What does this fold into?
Amino acid sequence: MFDREYDVIVVGAGHAGSEAAAAAANMGASTLLVTMNLQNIAQMSCNPAMGGIAKGQIVREIDALGGYSGIVTDRTAIQFKMLNKSKGPAMWSPRAQSDRMRFAEEWRMMLEQTPNLDFYQEMVSGLIVENNEIKGVKTSLGLSIYAKSVVLTNGTFLNGLIHIGEKQMGGGRAGERAATGITADLVELGFEAGRMKTGTPPRVDGRSLDYSKMTVQPGDAIPEKFSYSDVTKPLTHQRDCHMTYTSEKVHDLLRTGFDRSPMFNGAIKSTGPRYCPSIEDKINRFADKDRHQMFIEPEGWNTVEVYVNGFSTSLPEDVQFKALRSVVGFEQVKFFRPGYAIEYDYFPPTQLKHTLETKLVSGLYFAGQINGTTGYEEAGSQGLMAGINAALKVQGRNPFILKRNEAYIGVLIDDLITKGTEEPYRMFTSRAEYRTLLRQDNADIRLTPLGYEIGLAKEDRMNRMIEKQQKSDAFINFFKETSIKPEDANPMLEELASSEMKQSDKMYKVFSRPKVTMDHMKQFAEVSDYISENNLDTEVLEQTEIQIKYSGYIEKEKNNADKLNRLEDIRIPENFNFDKLTSVSFEAREKLKKIRPTTLSQASRISGVSPSDISIMLVYMGR
Amino acid sequence: MILQDTIIALASPSGAGAIAVIRISGTDAITLCDPFFSSVKKNKQLAQQKSHTIHLGHIVDGKRVIDQVLVSIFKGPNSYTGENVVEISCHGSTYIQQEIIQLFLRNGCRMAEAGEFTLRAFINGKLDLSQAEAVADLISSDNEASHQIAMQQMRGGFSNEIQHLRDELLNFASLIELELDFAEEDVEFADRSQFEALVDRIQTVLKRLIDSFAVGNVIKNGIPVAIVGAPNVGKSTLLNALLNEERAIVSDIAGTTRDTIEDELVIQGIGFRFIDTAGIRETEDVVESIGIKKTFEKIGQAQVVIYLFDASHFEENSQLITVEIEKIKNQFPQKPLVIIANKIDKSNTEKIQTELSYEHLLLLSAKENIGVEDLKDKLLQFVNTGALRNNETIVTNSRHYDSLLKALEEIEKVQLGLNDGLSGDLLAIDIRQALYYFGEITGEVTTDDLLGNIFANFCIGK
It folds into this structure.
């Protein structure tokens, strides 16, 4: 059936696999996407939402590089919010509620329209490897499919084990079977494998809820969108979410099931995400809190199914049900399905290079939960990078690596391969040293030129970015060159309790003052005229405002990035013998040997490697 | 830099002395010595001896005996450098020192570079950066006060204090990060009023440390005291009286010109540097008027000024003396000025006391040793040694001073931001920057130029 050799085979069609397949195919690599169920492409296995703090920035980065997640999200969103708008621009984070079914459908449609991409539904049960080089995959029907490179994006499917109370069943997702074979092959090849755990809350029937007892959570009055391209439009109407709380009574009911909880009775030994704890974890760890937030999220435009965010649990289904019925607004709740926990195999990501290629097997790439991450956005971005690099390698081109000061994606991958992860890795803005540079508003300026250079981002994207940049630069110059008289500015300044101007000054100075915003500046005729004459859109206005108002902070971060980046330039020779660092602690030496950092800066980020260890290495590097 | 080899250097001051100490450090330090050490007890192998033991014997080169020596053995990691260390105490002639060092250089040792022993101690985790810097200060300290500061710093007092502040700030920074990343979730936010209190406290400590630099610096280098007076009023006699009394180490440092001779002496543990000047008498002589300009420069550099005149010739010179005192006072109103009437054993002091009613007037006879004690008390009064007496941390290192200043600047920005209700992500930028400068002091931040600077200041042997 498969007589040709593909450039790239992508195993798994979740968020990572779909982005990987799209990227590789769009870059001209002949690509095959193999998945166990073609009806479930890009399933949202957990909450029906994309984005959020730090995650929203990642989606915009994927979009800026030419990935699909942003476009799919825009086309299938039912609500949009820009989170953290009251904070500095680095914290502004887009988040959308999605229509779960339409999201998967849209992904499938977009993949079907992607050139160079073939599909095949079957379980991959093994890898074909010769001399530490990938040659292809074997399927459960006994087929061999050959390829120059393989991207594994198995999600929670590798030896997946679902827990609900004391019941256990093999499975990769509720209602889907687990994948077997690949882990054993990889372990035999010398890979280290581990187990991780994650969980998901019950889904319920929205018709059984009393929303009048809950707080309404509407979307933004003027919604924005994820994609920088013009193929999507902001939402014109939206669906509300709701919020309610657990109570002591709910907690007491949940506690009655603790002895049958796989989390507490020892059935689950692997680590779950601290940041996304199950409800039983929350009441156990924060015993003094008498209530916890719950967000009630619709699963789509038309469906009555509802997602109970904040109530992830693997307690027995009867306990889940009883406890949920005690929540305000849930008195009559009907279950679509109970929550569950799932354990699955992952491979500590320190076994990867910055390209996400494994160190052990050339041409083999890992992306997504197989690397110990959690989240659609984290998975999608890794898939994109793995797909890009798999294609680049096949085409004999240079690898594509994003630096920590260029993208959250760069932070993510560098963290994974340098530090590894003991629990499902989720992105936070605090993981980035240069948060102020990695904003959601400038992902296109940061990354579209790079995506364009490798042939993924198309010309229209590039042109849009250039136009936005040129227009905002010109607008900034306008503020620098245009003067304003005290009598014109003072009424506004007085209103804002800002000190009066004594003599004429450039508008830029006035704009730089705290509390002065673009809306204030628009009150001046020169400014509003300039905007209409030059036909400036909100994106340009926002970009201009951020660059003027936060220039001090942005400059500072840039300087810091440069200062700390000096260690980035000190390369550690490939054959460097870490054993001769006898004065470095044994633990640190072992980690250095395992991870084999390529620069001193990367070495400094390895946990257990202290600054004084770095000083010692500096001495060895002849500095 | 190679760190596997064995290094050697003279650890005691260069030149001849009663005893000299030669230090050898490296993995092979002990085995390297064995062939050249002949114990008084037959067949004693150094390599088989316990750590921290001393052995009497001879250094021999084949059949030739170079010297009778004591050899101390320190096995790594329990040694100064953390490596195996041998210290040879030999007789102090330059010839013997050189013979022994040459012998080992011919047989596998390398001459240590400046600061290399301390560098190795640092690399082997025996010292942190600011402790290593303190070693350099300790070596060059020649009075009790500066010794005390350097010792305190070497024991880690200073870096501990900074480390403690840094930890607290770090803790708050992570609370702020938490609040940012979990804004949508139900978490406890960082308590702003507690944070303000912390920022206040950090500011206070930073300011105290920064202020201590002025004190620390004079203690480290000695407090400069300018002595102004016409020739033959008894300047040298006064200095000798001060010096003889203390039996302190006195060194003559020749200045760039003949007219500036500096004498150093230690009074109750505080170092003073006396700068002799030519006096400020009005003159039309060009050469002398250059001298006057110089005198004023010297006074400018000094912390304390002593004006000395001959009491036995007060009457004929009283007008001139008053004018000169006034000139100094006008030029340097802030500077403590001690007026000394010397040679009171030969004169009538009543007139002096009535005509010169200045706060710090001393009647003294250097020759007869009258009033010299009073002068010393006076000088000590002018030194702010409060911090020293209270055993507080004193900053003496200009690199630390610089980092503290920058840290304070950032902390002030944080405070301003807190007052303005600035968003956490922007506060975090200033906090991170402050943490960076704290880290520069404790060595939590590694940059290549930092390391280069520190170990360049050492002498060979340490």
Remarks:
- The CA atoms of residues 84 and 373 of chain B lie 50 Å apart.
